[in-house]
Amino acid sequence: MNRKTLVLPAVVGLLAPVLAACGGSGSGSGGGDAIVVGTTDRFTATKDAPAPVDPAYSYDVGTWNILRQTVQTLMVQPKGDGDPVPEAAESCGFTDTGNERYACKLREGLKFSDGNAITAADVKFSIDRARAIKSDSGVFALLSTIDTVETSGDREVVFHLKTADATFPYKLSTPVAGIVNPDDYQKDKLRDGFDIDGSGPYTMKAEVKGDVMVKATFTKNPHYKGALKVKNNKVDMVSFEDADTMGTALNKGDVDVMTRSMTPEQVQKLSTSTDGDVDLVEMAGLEIRYLAFNTNAPTVKNKAVRQAMAELINRPELVAKVYGSQAEPLYSMVPASITGHSNSFFNKYGDPSATKAKNTLAAANIDTPVKLTLNYTTDHYGAVTKKEFEQLQQQLNSSGLFDVTIKGTSWETFVPAERKGEYDVWGMGWFPDFPDADSYVAPFLDKDNFLNSPYRNNKIINNLIPESRRAADRLSASTTLTEIQDLVADDIPFLPLWQGKQYVAARDDITGTAYALNSSSTLQLWELGRGVAG
Questions:
Q1: Minimal CA–CA distance to 366: which of 411, 304, 309?
Q2: Do 227 and 72 form a contact (C-beta atoms < 8 A)?
Q3: What is the rounded CA–CA span in Å between residue 54 and residue 115?
């Protein structure tokens, strides 16, 4: 039978999991075995990125989901969402009225997984290290509002900020602020490979073939002391080359839980099935997809070209043909469910119109058809990405105003090429660092943006982003955030396409799946347990 459970969010804009379950019994592994989680995320150490799981480098949802299990942070986002709460800290808070001094007191008895005590000096070392290394992933920019870090005794850490930042507690919940063991991490150099030494709920052992981690075994850390309740002793995360292979493993019982990325066809089949022993958990999503532009590239330097693309791309048609009910059109870089969202792109460009696009190009004396290559990654956001770019190509070319080709590249090649400025136009996805509009604004538009984009808007950088961060009440930041979104819609360094839902499929004896992902697509393995199938 089908059964659906709705878990209502406690705060507006937070996510509501929906469980669509199929009756049956049985499981792929016994009660004492590790829970096996499948993913299509690929974990590769390359010449360009030799340290994929170093907190000072890692900046994608897959590697962050490794780190969140193993590296402890001062704060953590609670499983029901809402404001972050203390994790390695006993307490944290602003100690001044201007939100520029933030103090944390560590829990008593904190230890690294090797049993060595954690002190405030270790916290300072870890955060100063990420700020000093300034890796080309751009993750250090999350700590950009820090001026200095000081300690008082073994348990007190004080952050002095350059400017008010109401989002700072969220930033201390991200892996870049994770506490690492100074015995294992050099202060001025990234740690190559897949070894991790922290104080999180699990230790991790990597199984590596060549330069690729194919399995990560998470074992409950006996020295862990924090806010999280760990409901299992061991989890194996297995990396699959594609969603179909992962789905086959789930059906055979070799996998207990299946996470990102499932294909739309898999989600549709699981959501409508009335028999079997696999449950599908559906949650509203904060993931977005967008096109990024190298605004210095000759093909798209004139913003009229970018504006014409905004006037042509039909988001509802794109979503309907590729993702169906699993995504929604997006008209801002800030998703519709986040406080401060504004439909800036729709307000400026309205419904798709070849006539408007033609007039825009003509007014700027742009010869048509405009020749462009749209670049996408073949193995990071799921196999359906190719179909999405075929639709974009068709929409743009059918106008007669563009001559678009598309090119797919593996993630390990795609990311270094994008950061070196080798692409004029490329497709990306974004999972928020934390559920706040700042996480959809600053990483793209502030100094040291993670895409290494040449686009700079001094008003956004110097005035609007700092102003938005001064608002402790995030609703009061909406006017400033709307102005940022309107400026982006006019200049179009990025072109938002859609926001998606997120899914977890699990065998029906696995418990805790409604909290296996939080609003930032954080994988919370500690929530998973093994119960009774049925």
A1: 304
A2: no
A3: 21
Strand partners, 75: 86
Distances (CA, A) of 324 to 6, 242, 287, 298, 321: 21, 20, 16, 35, 6
Q: What element of type H or E holds 2? A: strand 2-6
Percentage helix, strand, coil, to 5, in the chain? Answer: 30, 25, 45
- Of residues 522 and 234, more confidently modeled: 234
Kindly report whether the peptide bond that precedes residue 261 is cis, defined as omega within 30 degrees of 0.
Answer: yes
Q: Give the global pTM.
A: 0.88
User: Does 40 have pLDDT greater than 70?
Assistant: yes
Distance CA 400, CA 394 (A): 10
- Tokens of residue 2, six digits: 């089908």
Rounded CA-CA distance 79/270 in Å is 25
d(CA 81, CA 101): 25
Of the candidates 42, 416, 366, the residue with the CA atom closest to the CA atom of residue 194: 42
pLDDT digits (tens, 9 = 90+) for 136-166: 999 999 999 999 999 999 999 999 999 999 9
Q: Report pLDDT for 438.
A: 96
Instruction: Reply yes or no on whether the pLDDT at 10 is more than 50.
Output: no
Secondary structure E strands in 134-182:
146-152, 156-161
Q: 3-class DSSP state for residue 438? A: helix
What single letter denotes the amino acid at residue 237?
Answer: M
Residue 4 scores a pLDDT above 80: no
What are the φ and ψ backbone dihedral angles of 514, each rounded to 5 degrees? -65, -20
Mean of all residue pLDDT scores within the chain: 91
Number of H helices, E strands in the chain: 15, 22
User: SS3 string of 85-123?
Assistant: EECCEEEEEECCCCCCEEEEEECCCCECCCCCECCHHHH
Secondary structure class of 124 (helix, strand, coil): helix
